[in-house]
Amino acid sequence: MGQLLVTLFLSPVTLVGLLVALFWRSHRFRQERAVFGTSIDRLWTNWWAGLLGGIAGGLVLSVALVLLGAMLPHPVLLALIVLNVVALLLAGLGFAPWFVALAGLVILLPPWLGPLAKPAGWAAGYAALLAGLWLVNALLLRFMNPAVDVPKLRPGKRGARIATYSRRQWYWLPLVLPVAGDWLPAFGWWPQLGIGSVHFALVGLPLVIGAALTTKKQLPTHATDAWSWQYLGAGLVALVVAALVYWRPAAGQMAVFTLAALGVILGLANWAATRRGTGLISQTSAGVRLVAVQPDTPASKMGLAAGDIVLTCNHLPVHTEDELYAALQTSPTYCRLKVMRLDGAIRLTETAIFNGAPHELGMITFAEEQA
Length: 371
Description:
With 371 residues, the chain is an alpha+beta fold. 45% of the residues lie in helices and 22% in strands. The radius of gyration is 25 Å and the shape is elongated.
């Protein structure tokens, strides 16, 4: 058990993932304070989602892979670690776990770099691992994906500023995988297991999955919802490939290339999903556009969201932040709003408020930008 914990917590993926997550959290705070004068979301909700969801997914996936006997050669495991570390370091450009499908391409390495078992012996387990990673990613993005988005204001083509949104939600998956026992002959202290004539060791392989993306014409939730369906479909296809290779091991090499191609297609589908949307989230003369909503505030309790347009406040039409502020003062303890959602739907909402300015409601608007 001690050895497994060492490989899980001191893995390059775990250490780099922690540093990258801390960096982007600090970067988000600095950016929000510089632009809006306040941190929009100070909670650790997305961190708890990443840990609890990832650990639960890793436990289920580990049990399934051990029962299937998915023994991967160490070059494939090393490729997964390297790819994951590189993807985390490049998370500023985006992050999506389609890259795991490229790990099997180590079969193209020159033989002098080290012997690698033929894909017939490990391709089925490899396909099962990819299927599990993609299915877990689909479920977590669907059910444990808190909307902690980072707004950034940019000048639009027609003078009005627009808001773009970034989301970085990672899940730490502490996987435990069986590895052929002859990989660790030098480590006599490493526990060896056996089933019949098959000897193997259990090693920890923590991986980080999730999503890091930026959207312009929609909120990130809509993109990650699309991603969850894409990963669900890719995971089911990978399961079919795993079943076929279990049935016909000779097709292992073809399966590895098929999965790599599937991963690239999945990555392109992820990219396309972030570009969708009906229109830019920009300033408007129709009302007051909300750039963000702070959690645990009257605005969040009213169900307001980034992109909403406040049309009336306390029955008074509002077109600017000053008019919104003035309308709030007509009823210092209660607020009634008419808002239009991004999809054009109109809804009415009301709540008790703090006596003061719009930002005390938890609404962040374009006017909150600092000079």
